[in-house]
């Protein structure tokens, strides 16, 4: 295991086209489908960071800000912004994109916590997070601030 891993090494972006099987009767994304995509993207980011299998420990509050319409592309982005001894905190943002017009809008975001595990499912240590560029430092600071704000809103 590496002692430190850069934030951008965890950065993951997925795209999904919203098709009829993943919509409600209004032609909009099912919330459970969006949460599924978010969990997968966050899992990939945490595994890239830890270099090991990771399991979802928790997911923070989620607000669906705007709907994703059938035919639009969901862009799911995730990156590690903090760590514990065996845990990894991941920020996940979802945007809807109209591929014909190129317009995008934010639809939701949340914070996930993963735990790195060995082949037996026991927790293992994770690397320290390194932010070696201004962009990485900015992403981490924005995630920490948003996470703190969300925690205060829930109290």
From TrEMBL:
Pfam families: 4HBT. One of its GO terms (biological process) is acyl-CoA metabolic process. Keywords: Hydrolase. GO terms for cellular component: cytosol. It comes from the Archaea. GO terms for molecular function: long-chain fatty acyl-CoA hydrolase activity. Gene3D superfamilies: Hotdog Thioesterase. InterPro entries: Cytosol_ACT, HOTDOG_ACOT, HotDog_dom_sf, Thioestr_dom. This is Acyl-CoA hydrolase.
